[in-house]
Amino acid sequence: MLFSGVLDLPWWGLVMVTLVLTHVSIAAVTIYLHRHQAHRALNLHPLASHFFRLWLCMTTGMVTKEWAAVHRKHHAKCETTDDPHSPRIYGINRVLWAGVFLYARETRNKATLERYGHGTPDDWLERNVYSSPAKLGLFAMGLINIILFGVVPGLLILAVQIVWIPFWAAGVINGIGHYWGYRNWSSADASTNIFPLGILIGGEELHNNHHAFGSSAKLSNRWYEFDIGWMYIRILDMLGLAQVKKVAPRPRFAEAKPVADFETLQAVMTYRYDVLAKYAKSLKTTYAEELRLLRRFAPQDARSLRGLKRWLHRDEKQLCQEERARLAEALAKSEKLSTVYTMRQELAALWERSTASREQLLKQLQDWCGRAEASGIRQLEEFSLRLRRYA
To answer: Do residues 252 and 113 touch, judged by C-beta distance below 8 A?
Structure first.
């Protein structure tokens, strides 16, 4: 008869233990590897940092430098052929079910590790224990599981621990998180929020929020969103084991300035995702008004506008050639809607022109506001006023 373990738990007890152990691994990835190491959104006390490093070594075998480097490259090259795991490039099925192999392949790219792996731990423990090619931590975890839960249950729990992160992180987050879900922010990539309650994957379900504010320690942005990873960070903070460095900026407003100045420009750049989100509402209002008008006086043109709504708030570069052609054809039916859409592209270009000087960008912003207010389009006039109120 096989050894049944010190604890000798019933099957449901073993399931509960497995869920708790894998959730600790999820917390270690999102708090330590992701928010602390890859993005420097918070500082961790050495006690917390070493616990997470040891736990990841024993349950996943992942190396901090490799994980941080691959993830940073993903942000830097998102949705391009250099992205280590974009479903836009590799297809959703390959990333979802075989994302771990894409990750493993990129960890063998020395150029990636040298370019994006800076600032990660390089002490004796990291070099000789946590990064050991022998993966001794996994053997130690397996031995502990067998002693506590028995031979078969212990090995099964270890197997679940090993595959848990590769599936949920490398597969679901990197795959579904760039393929299906809702978007709060018009980031330049295809990132989505999979679900508003970030519990199962530690808050990483809020992936679009993360891509919009990559250096934020908090991934929830809306009142109905919950980030359990942020809750853990707040607990660690209260215990003196963590210190939050940065969260997503909240827009502040003041009395509208007669003319946009450098402070206005800086505020617009800082709150650019809020700017685009509010502009999307203006676009939708304009679209609804134009659709009602065309239905009365030009039913055929109104039919051309149907289905256009889902494309209006997206950057034109995110649309395929056929979608761009249909969008241009539909916009030609409404000069007002075409103007509002085109000026959205011009406004978004402000923070994409990295080579322009502050003076050039300010002149472009002032020119945009001037044309908006002289357009005779209520939505543009109101939005120009809003821009001049950002503080």
So the answer is: no
